[in-house]
Amino acid sequence: MNSPARKPRVAGFALFTLSLAAVFVALGLWQLQRRTAKHALVAALTERLAEAPIALAPPSQWAALNPARDEFRRVSFTATYAALPDAMVYSSGSAVRKDASGPGTWAFLPARLPGGETVVIDAGFVENTMQDRAVEDRAVKKLVTGQPVALTGYLRFPEPPGWLTPAENRDKRLWFVRDHPAIASALGWGTVAPFYVDLEQPAPENGIPRPGPLDVHLKDDHLQYAVTWFMLAGAVLIAFAVWARGRRQS
């Protein structure tokens, strides 16, 4: 008498199992797609980092620059650090700087081009585990000389804050994301370029702040995640098969 009732229950559970397995397979395929895209990105960035620096594009071309095509391109130009408040950007470690694997702050300063435009410079890493404003002030004071400096670095673009990004500390002039337009607005730097420059050279005599070359070390766990999703899909199918077989035998 229970047979007619069992069939709909088995059919419904089978549909649920197939749907769940399909979701797991789709997630596994998505991870494989992300892995392919990540490898393409690493290849493109590695190629850009190895290229010789080119002249910074004139302001008339800045609007055409975009992260997909221009992030990490090496550029050279001359600018003068402005006598304006600098900003600290906290970092727990860098994925593109081997020599900045621990906590500290990046020194962000505005610099004037010969034409009067302002470009924000990430002048380098400061070993500043307590995010001490006095440490940053001593580090950047010697950079602001009023004299033009020949700079070489990498084009970078602003990062939007995430849900868990802490709010900035205006008293310390401390930020937790590299959103240089927001920093410029808060500190009165005026209109700035839509990109900032990660400084490669020159370095101060004592190396603080510490600029340097970039190297791509993007985390790649996508294959591991894909295998996990595929294994989960197989596990739910096997579990359903064992359950269905047990019901038939009973």
UniProtKB/TrEMBL annotation:
**Which keywords accompany this UniProt record?**
Cell membrane, Membrane, Transmembrane, Transmembrane helix
Q: What is its main location?
A: membrane
> How would you describe this protein's topology in the membrane?
Multi-pass membrane protein
Q: Does the keyword Transmembrane helix apply?
A: yes
InterPro entries, from UniProt? Surf1/Shy1, Surf1/Surf4
Source taxon at top rank: Bacteria
Signal sequence segment:
none
Residue intervals passing through the bilayer? 223-244
Q: What is this protein called?
A: SURF1-like protein
